[in-house]
Design brief:
single chain, 290 residues, alpha/beta, 2 domains, two-stranded antiparallel ribbon, elongated, nuclease activity
């Protein structure tokens, strides 16, 4: 066994030292120490291992720290091995295991509204905050770079000439995900990915308790509740996108495009926030195929 792996107390010291300065802890893990403890309480029982006669098990808080560091930086397993004094073979097992448990515990926070009133509440927030009535969500896709799977050909090769999978997200006016779908092949368009989701199919089959059209102004015509997306999405009764082309200042189309763009930009901002916390671009030659 390599000598640096025997220095087990260094693992604990890393986090203890970082907790002395919350700024350093956030920089290292991308979350605050209090949020770290909250996550740890949620997943610790499921990721804890038993000590053996030969050695003590890696503690849950070190397992979580390794995973967060991996997700936030894209560091290779070899690099993480030196940082945490844990073999890269074990890290290769720890990261997927912890990720699986994080998904299991946190998916309850990504919740599609269940009733028409809940959808209307989302719409009211968009109207109050972003001055766009009858909008229940902002939708967009984000390419997450991967190492191309074996024998996949050009399936994951996107328009930027990189290999990726697509993260499709719908967010509300307060920067919260209400739906997410990840894993579509990079060659697919955002609109194509959306049309293959369970959300789209449920919407098409009238299974989402979508609110019925209602006038925006008193005595006005009934107007549908919609998602807002960019020009890549197909225009439908429940999907709005900008008018194509340039329009003169002060015209109705120019004003609508401005307000729609402002409402739609929320999902882009959410992806930006997520990108600060999670590395979208790992060093592909150092990572296993996703």
């Amino acid at each position: 066994m390599r000598n640096f792996l025997l220095q087990r107390e260094r693992r604990v010291n890393i986090l203890s030292d970082l907790r002395m300065s919350d700024g350093s802890f956030v920089n290292f893990t991308r979350i605050s120490s209090s949020d770290f403890e909250t996550l740890l309480q949620m997943i610790a029982p499921s990721i804890a291992k038993q000590d053996t006669i030969l050695r003590n098990a890696i503690s849950p808080h070190i397992r979580l720290a390794i995973t967060l560091r991996y997700l936030s930086t894209g560091d290779s397993y070899a690099s993480l091995s030196y940082t945490f004094r844990v073999s890269k073979q074990l890290i290769r097992k720890i990261v997927p295991e912890v990720c699986k448990e994080l998904i299991k515990q946190l998916k309850i926070f990504v919740k599609v509204p269940a009733t028409a009133n809940e959808w209307k509440t989302k719409a009211k927030s968009f109207e109050n905050i972003w001055n766009f009535p009858h909008c229940v969500g902002s939708i967009d896709g984000k390419h997450v770079l991967i190492q191309a799977p074996s024998n996949s050909g050009s399936d994951y090769f996107n328009y930027k000439e990189q290999f990726s999978i697509v993260l499709l997200g719908i967010v509300d006016a307060n920067y919260n995900f209400i739906y997410a779908n990840c894993g579509a092949k990079g060659k697919s368009s955002d609109s194509g990915v959306f049309q293959e989701t369970a959300f789209y199919k449920a919407l098409a089959d009238y299974q989402l308790n979508w609110p019925t059209p209602y006038p925006i102004r008193q005595d006005g015509p009934n107007m549908p509740y919609v998602l807002v997306g960019d020009s890549a999405f197909a225009l439908t009764e429940n999907m709005m996108k900008p008018y194509p082309g340039n329009h003169d200042v002060g015209t109705t189309r120019r004003i609508l495009n401005y307000r729609l763009s402002r409402a739609r930009r929320i999902v882009e901002n959410v992806f930006g926030i997520l990108g600060v916390c999670i590395s979208y671009i790992p060093n592909s030659h150092n990572h296993p195929t996703l």
